[in-house]
Amino acid sequence: MSALPNPLREGLAAERIPEPATMVIFGASGDLTKRKLLPALYSLTRERLLPGRFAVIGYARKQLTDDAFRGEMRAGCEEFARRRPVDAELWDGFARNIFYQEGGYDDPNAFIALRERLEQIEKQLGLPGNRVFYLSIPPSSFATVVRNLGVSGLVPPPSAGPQAHFSRVIIEKPFGTDLATAQKLNRDIHETLTENQIYRIDHYLGKETVQNLLVFRFANGIFEPVWNNRYVDHVQITGAETVGVEGRGGYFEQAGILRDMVQNHLFQVVSLAAMEPPVAFDADGVRDEKLKVLKALHPIPSSEIDAHVVRAQYAAGSIAGRAVPGYREEPGVSPTSQTETYVALKFFIDSWRWMGVPFFLRSAKRMPKRATEIAIHFKEAPRLLFGRRGEGIRPNVLSIRIQPDEGISLNFGSKLPGPVMEVAPVTMEFRYGSSFGVEPPEAYERLILDCLLGDGTLFTRADEVEASWTWISRIHQHWQEKAAAQTAAGTVEPLPSYPAGSWGPEAGDRLIGDGGRQWRRP
Ligand code: BG6
User: Which residues are known catalytic residues?
Assistant: First the structure.
């Protein structure tokens, strides 16, 4: 395929430069700041996408000087930035406007000290007072920090009306652990912020290939007419990872893969793949349509949850020839844990477009291959024209590879060369790497830039988060009730397991196999 300009990047450098601003990062001593946030800001500087006047203030409990913080951030960029080594001259200019402020998250006085420091830096650098607060902190502190932003005057109260300068807050995941906690968090932060000041991060939306779902569907005339129940047999969504819980056993025990990957990342992918065309490609236009998909997810009656939702845990096994322990042996994980590291779901979307089309979604840790993709399986063509020679006919599959090896492929039947009319399956491929010759930017670069520009399209809105929790929380509730009943009866059944390095339990294959279908091997 020929190299066309990437429509998602068109005009980006020329038109999308945000106003001068300061970004305050709460949780500045954490991993995300060093691995993702500062490298993203550095890349944006390198690509001249940040405003000329821009400052960063790291905020955390740890005691650090500005210089020590700059040193840590430079080390982070040397290790994790997209283009390395770090350009010394560029870094010096960038680092001059990086500062550090020590303080707790629940101490209003520390926030007043932060405000004073911020005002002083804004004055010194001639910054107008536009502010982005990035909450890269434990979720239990989200509401407290937002409240303190208001109390300390770092963010003006909603009653103050429209302001000359913006104050925006980026909130990391997870946003709640179920419907009730997400609703409470929304209520709490809405006391200080209006919805258009809130940018809930889902880093999947920052991935180029996820955004390309919209371009693919709505910038091409040929796919939309077949993107419905008349032509689509079923849809498969896979979020497979080879990694285990990577030292995050304590967190994962409380989360499980359904919360960690499905409720947020994969449901965002589903909503983009299944939504109707938006009236405009803007924050509300796109999110209104995504919301309709999430609201139209058919609620699975609790009596059917076990038949539609398969969960399992990885046991010891091997990944790429290396022996790895089972989930229950990971640090921070209970030896009797009932937390799922694999989940497979079958669900339906109650809309005119998707009525009757099953969606199969699976996500797991410790699979043989890292692969995130969405595959549209079309209905089979009748074989009668080809008789036995048509045995090679397979239903067409359009698969959109989100990562790695980003691209799109379409399988179709072709005539085998030779004197007889035999059909064999072949594939037509588009690969990002070879077509555009550039590596896609990091999700965080795009998301930070969009927030600075005030574009919320790629962030999740309060109602989307709640709609997605509404559906997911029913499953958790069913699991909880089942666990309670088993405990009461003294008959706790361990979750089914799958060896690390396999494609999951047999029950997952049966879930999709009942209709004669099978999981794709990505
Ligand atoms: C995070 C999850 O949100 O996403 C991790 O907490 C998961 O458990 C990660 O590994 C996957 O992100 P990516 O970009 O590597 O697919």
Answer: 265
522 residues of the chain, pLDDT tens digit each: 334 444 444 444 446 789 999 999 999 999 999 999 999 999 999 999 999 999 999 999 999 999 999 999 999 999 999 888 999 999 999 999 999 999 999 999 999 999 999 999 999 999 999 999 999 999 999 999 999 999 999 999 888 888 899 999 999 999 999 999 999 999 999 999 999 999 999 999 999 999 999 999 999 999 999 999 999 999 999 999 999 998 899 999 999 999 999 999 999 999 999 999 999 989 999 999 999 999 999 999 999 999 999 999 999 999 999 999 999 999 999 999 999 999 999 999 999 999 999 999 999 999 999 999 999 999 988 777 777 776 777 899 999 999 898 899 999 988 889 888 888 889 999 998 888 887 778 999 999 999 999 999 999 999 999 999 999 999 999 999 999 999 999 999 999 999 999 999 999 999 999 878 999 998
**Which helix (H) or strand (E) is 36 found in, with range?**
none
Minimum CA distance residue for ligand 1 atom 9: 261
Distance of CA 431 to the CA centre of its chain: 21
| 406 ligand 1 Cβ < 6 A | no
Q: Is 202 in the pocket of ligand 1 (CB under 6 A)?
A: no
How far does CA 349 lie from the centroid of its chain?
Answer: 21
Residue 241, ligand 1, Cβ within 6 A: yes
- Residue 244: HSE in the Cβ half-sphere, 13 Å Cα cutoff: 29
DSSP labels, 104-116 = -SS-HHHHHHHHH
Closest CA to 410 of 240, 265, 226: 226
Do residues 522 and 404 touch, judged by C-beta distance below 8 A? Answer: no
**For ligand 1, atom 5, which residue shows the shortest CA distance?**
260
Give kind and range of the element (H or E) at residue 24.
strand 21-26
Contacts of 270 (CB under 8 A, 6+ apart): 237, 293, 359, 361, 374
Find the 332 Cα to ligand 1 centroid distance in Å: 18
465 touches 294 (CB < 8 A):
no
Tell which atom from ligand 1 comes closest to the C-alpha of 243: 10
Out of 209, 265, 366, mutate this one to test ligand 1's pocket (max ligand atoms within 8 Å of CB): namely 265
Instruction: Name the residue among 424, 380, 375, 365 with its Cα closest to residue 398.
Output: 375
The helix (run of H) or strand (run of E) holding residue 14 is helix 12-15
Strand pairing category for 371-378 and 359-364: unpaired
pTM value is 0.93
Ligand 1 atom with least separation from CA of 239: 16
Closest ligand 1 atom to the C-alpha of 443? 14
Considering only CA atoms, which residue is closest to atom 8 of ligand 1? Answer: 260
